[in-house]
Amino acid sequence: MARPDNKKFFENLTGAGKAIAVLTSGGDAQGMNAAVRAVVRMGIYVGAKVYFIHEGYQGMVDGGDNIKEATWESVSSMLQVGGTVIGSARCKEFRTHEGRLKAAHNLVQRGITNLCVIGGDGSLTGANLFREEWSGLLNELVQQGLIDEDAVQRYSALHIVGMVGSIDNDFCGTDMTIGTDSALHRIIEVVDAIMTTAQSHQRTFVLEVMGRHCGYLALVSALACGADWVLIPEMPPEDGWEEKMCEKLSATRSRGSRLNIIIVAEGAIDRHGKAITSNRVKDLVVRCLGFDTRVTILGHVQRGGTPSAFDRILASRMGVEAVLALLETTANTPACVVSLCGNQAVRLPLMECVQMVTNKVKTLKLSVLVEFCLFFYYRSFQNNLKTYKLLAHRKPESELPHSNFNVAVLNVGAPAAGMNAAVRSAVRVGISEGHKMFAINDGFEGFYKGQIREIKWGDVGGWTGQGGSLLGTKRTLPAKHVDKIAEQIRKYNLNALLIIGGFEAYLGIMELLAARGTYEEFCLPMVMVPATVSNNVPGSDLSIGADTALNAITDTCDRIKQSASGTKRRVFIIETMGGYCGYLASVGGLAAGADAAYIYEEPFDIRDLQSNVEHLTEKMKTSIQRGLVLRNENCNDNYTTDFIYQLYSEEGRGVFDCRKNVLGHMQQGGAPSPFDRNFGTKISAKAMQWISKKLTECYRQGRVFANTEDSACLLGMRRRALVFQPVVELKPETDFVWVESHTCSKRATINTYQVKLIESIFSYIFND
């Protein structure tokens, strides 16, 4: 298939005359193939030659058929494949000077001076050493008569860009490494399955997960599943931890729980450096408590399987950034590593990051950007740890503060996976802050009907992994019922509201804010946490539930593409949710390797449809005889899913046939992904802490009175941080569309920069 001619994006880039090689090294990680694919297609797009180096550094040393030129088609159908299809191997020979000399000769023979290395800190350190020795290696090759002086001049500098592929997330300078999210998926799938059998037999399960030197997988999976205890290498437990753990397990059982989950990182140690193994923990529980206890060691299942949607998108974005970095390097540019900082791909000095991993932070003079990323890396880890302790370990009643404040939590809008995790977090943090927590069933409808009850610590046990909304949620808005809602606030003496939901929740909190002038009862702190699969709430780049929906879309598209592998010459038209927001269609298209994505934010006409049909017609002449097109449900009033299906069927007659699939509410169902569980948990905990602060600030003369704009906020993810924003300040960036039912939907997604970026690198570069 010919490289698409798209002048709209990346028009100033050129890789003509450049040769780029990509290799994977060290342990494999899900998502590596997506990174390889992105490097190959972006490199070809800008006019460079791109080479595979099979079997990592071993292939570079051995040369021959291990180094092959890549084509556009050679990376098709690898997006959904786990591991690395170009192979990975640890190479002792590359650690020697003679091995690196052979590798240099093999690269010079093919004119390769740009190297993209996907691996861990050891692989990246080796790449940097290779770069530093490059000039000397070329001189040795001249002395041995293997190359001439002209080759030394032409290939005088070796440029290195790294991407971190590691399930442990143990590399400083990046929020997430390629493979970490997929590994969390494997762990949570196992934990969810084990909890059902543990519940049946009243058992305790000790799960051992990977992480010799980094407890990220253990800590985050414990947070995501609500484990009773977690042991990680970064936090050796205090002496006497055995008794405290047994007391905690016993207390959990005494409150009616039929199971216990303990998660142990493989590198966990105590204060004296003695290993804490899963069998040691099991024997302790059996000896002290007599509980029926089992051990499950997950092992390499954490490395295997299909990459998650997050890892596919992360790897694709990093791959594009890696090629851009190589195109912009000069002879004096130091090796860099592409990292994730919030929602942005950034470039950091490679060796500074590697040295941080090897515990030399205190002796380094770090760049400002590296210090910034390092600060957030450790702050994020500490926040995870603090949140876990807050939610997993209940303080005795005598140690709890007594605030005398009543706080209510409710879900509003369509259900989104992760809502229950957010409610659990809010309830337990609220109780820890000394508040009395109330649950409101069925959103604002239940609010005005009085469906309100006190909710206790134990009532939300096991909620983290539950899909949907256990409180119940409806789209009803409060404007017509503010008098009855005010009455319920008086009746239950509510002092603050936490609203978890989508666009209807955003509208609802604005209507309550507007009612303050009439009803003094609404002069109380109110905060909204975004939870919607559409990811269309203003003020936040991410919403609870969107990641789970993306994984549902990606999994379905994988199966659909697989079904087409036998029939050949078939194009599938897939309709996704999202209202007027194209987030699911565009980002899902990138993760699934679609040929096109039609969204509201990118207007299209019949000429674009014709162009896409012609593209698919040409594609059917290659070995990739299938197509995938995603359409956002409200992208165009006239070009409906049926219209596009019929158009493709007619215009592709004799070349390909068509099928259509409307994914519908399966995007809202299912167990929440690890990302949504953790995001919901942490954002809701932060919202409750804000409420506690506001209640203290607004308590005057024996009552809570809050009527300022900043007392009604939305808590959203903005690039790098969670930010509280008064809802009135979000109106200018919201595009309202009123319909006959007097409900609102949001046309343009506020994270437009994300959609534009995905569109620019997806439609023309990454389709399969």
TrEMBL record:
EC number: 2.7.1.11
Subcellular location: Cytoplasm
Region of interest: N-terminal catalytic PFK domain 1: 1-393
Swiss-Prot/TrEMBL catalytic activity: beta-D-fructose 6-phosphate + ATP = beta-D-fructose 1,6-bisphosphate + ADP + H(+)
Activity regulation information from UniProt: Allosterically activated by ADP, AMP, or fructose 2,6-bisphosphate, and allosterically inhibited by ATP or citrate.
GO biological process terms, semicolon-separated: canonical glycolysis; fructose 1,6-bisphosphate metabolic process; fructose 6-phosphate metabolic process
Positions bound to substrate: 166-168, 203, 210-212, 266, 294, 300-303
Annotated residues for binding of Mg(2+): 121
Domain Phosphofructokinase residues, every copy: 20-325, 406-691
Active site: residue positions: 168
Coiled-coil regions, chain positions: none
Binding, ATP: 27, 90-91, 120-123
Cofactor requirements of the protein: Mg(2+)
Keyword field: Allosteric enzyme, ATP-binding, Cytoplasm, Glycolysis, Kinase, Magnesium, Metal-binding, Nucleotide-binding, Transferase
Pathway it works in: Carbohydrate degradation; glycolysis; D-glyceraldehyde 3-phosphate and glycerone phosphate from D-glucose: step 3/4
Gene Ontology MF: a single term: 6-phosphofructokinase activity
CC per GO annotation: 6-phosphofructokinase complex; membrane
Residues holding beta-D-fructose 2,6-bisphosphate: 475, 532-536, 570, 577-579, 633, 659, 665-668
Principal subcellular localisation of the protein: cytoplasm
Enzyme class, UniProt record, top EC level: transferase
Subunit structure: Homo- and heterotetramers.
Family affiliation: Belongs to the phosphofructokinase type A (PFKA) family. ATP-dependent PFK group I subfamily. Eukaryotic two domain clade 'E' sub-subfamily.
Function: Catalyzes the phosphorylation of D-fructose 6-phosphate to fructose 1,6-bisphosphate by ATP, the first committing step of glycolysis.
Protein name: ATP-dependent 6-phosphofructokinase
